[in-house]
Write a structure and sequence with these properties.
The protein is 46% helix and 15% strand. The protein is built from 17 helices and 12 strands. It has a 7-stranded mixed β-sheet with strand order 9-8-7-6-10-11-12, sandwiched between helices. Strands 1-2-4-3-5 form a 5-stranded mixed β-sheet.
């Protein structure tokens, strides 16, 4: 580690001591940058690292709303506008009780590099609230009603609308923020701003949304895996795959894998994991997607033949024949013990669909074993890439076909893969997608920051 990186990391840890996820994300990126910093002394001269780890703007606000019993509730809202060197801030909104400043800063920091890798002109941001749509505030075990979610979203947007815009900051969905929530927020933005603009992505198809957007993160993760395998003359045909999660990312990754001839063995949620030894078929997958997206239930409710349910465990250690793993749930879900199990049982590819789902000790094992391992900032960039395509369609007042969007998504994921591969090779780490993705994402943003002066 260079003295420059060591100094910046020390300062980050001192200033953000109560934000472990943010420190973890910064540490993971900065520890790989020594080769590019040594070759480009202008980055240190312009204090690029010191500026890159500080958000350009942090917005925090209260969100008062009224539940179905007429009781006033108060949540906390955030928007982290991290870096706009290469374009307007772009990144999702997350509604979950785990949301806090440190989590959102980690997500925004990762988003800067992810968006840079897409080749599209988008800066990095992230936001959300500690609001939990999965838990009614007045009835234990029940979810918030649609009316409660609408009132919360309208209150949230009543403050957020002041800080966003199609050329300033374009939020999207993230955990627990899907088409319903985006629709409510878009309606409130339009009402307050008195204009129709593409200020949110992930919109419904009837009001400016893009085809393939719900599928994009999961599909993109699989397309990236295809590119990794192609470098070694292999395909996904017949590969045994374990997936965590059962939301959009996991479900559509599973769908694409099944259609490419892979065998998907697992899915999971907070209730536990399901295992189908003969492979999940599309009928069962459709049942899961209906359960999660319409009924808003849990995998423990699946009773189909051939499905084994494992309560309160993740997907990684419930089967002993594994070729590929796709962590698609949440940060730090795959630890060192899980990584050791995967490697012991034949896993040769890990494609991250979630943001930072692998802990540092898990990443160390994957990189040390020299398997095909792609960090989330590279392999899950398909979602934000397609959000960028939605922005383009909104600006042009056009709607592209599913085939057009999917073709563009495949091209973007191949470009991300190739850029990461070439950056790693250029700096002496061929095949290391962690180093390659970090350097490729970093240099584009850093060069823009140098060119724009101290700002």
């Amino acid at each position: 580690m260079s003295k420059y990186v060591e100094s910046v990391l020390k300062d980050v840890k001192a200033k953000n001591a109560n934000e472990p996820e943010f420190i973890q994300a910064v540490d993971e990126v900065l520890m790989t940058l020594d080769p590019v910093l040594e070759a480009n002394p202008q980055y240190e001269a312009n204090a690029i690292l010191e500026r890159m780890v500080e958000p350009e703007r942090v917005i925090m606000f209260r969100v008062p709303w009224v539940d179905d019993k007429g009781i006033v509730r108060v949540n906390r809202g955030y928007r982290i506008q991290m870096n706009s060197a290469i374009g307007p801030y772009k990144g999702g909104l997350r509604f979950d009780p785990t949301v806090n400043l440190g989590v959102l800063k980690f997500l925004a920091f990762e988003q800067v590099f992810k968006n840079s890798l897409t080749t599209l002109p988008m800066g990095g941001g992230k936001g959300g609230s500690d609001f939990n749509p999965k838990q009614s505030p007045h009835t234990p075990g029940q979810r918030c009603s649609d009316a409660e979610v609408m009132r919360f979203c309208q209150s949230f947007m009543t403050e957020l609308f002041r800080h966003i815009g199609p050329d300033t900051d374009v939020p999207a969905g993230d955990m627990n923020v899907g088409g319903r929530e985006i629709g409510y927020m878009f309606g409130q933005y339009k009402r307050l701003a008195n204009e129709w603009t593409g200020v949110l992505t992930g919109k419904g198809l009837s009001f400016g949304g893009s085809l393939i957007r719900p599928e994009a993160t999961g599909y993109g993760d699989v397309y990236f895996a295809q590119n990794m395998l192609a470098k070694r003359g292999e395909t996904l045909e017949g590969k045994k795959c374990v997936i965590s999660g059962s939301g959009n990312v996991a479900s559509f990754a599973a769908q694409k894998l099944i259609r490419l001839g892979a065998k998907v063995l697992t899915l999971s949620d907070r209730s536990g994991s399901i295992l189908v030894k003969d492979g999940i078929n599309e009928d069962l997958l459709n049942e899961v997607m209906n359960l999660k997206n319409v009924k808003r239930g849990e995998l423990s409710e699946i009773k189909s033949a051939g499905v084994q349910f494992f309560p309160k465990v993740n997907s990684w250690q419930i089967t002993d024949a594994i070729d590929c793993a796709f962590p698609c749930a949440r940060q730090n879900e795959l630890n060192g013990e899980d990584a050791a199990y995967l490697l012991k049982h034949g896993c040769k590819l890990v494609g991250e669909g979630a943001n930072m789902p692998s802990t540092p000790d898990a990443i160390e094992q994957f990189v040390g074993a020299k398997i095909m391992y792609s960090p989330g900032k590279a392999s899950n960039a398909g979602g934000v890439a397609t959000s960028g395509l939605e922005m383009s369609q909104n600006s042009e007042r056009l709607s592209w076909s599913a085939e057009e969007v999917d073709t563009k998504l495949k091209g973007i994921m191949k470009a991300i893969h190739d850029n990461a591969w070439e950056a790693a090779a250029k700096y002496g780490h061929e095949g290391n997608y962690v180093v390659g993705a970090n350097i490729a994402g970093f240099t584009k943003v850093a060069d823009a920051m140098v060119a724009q002066g101290v700002c």
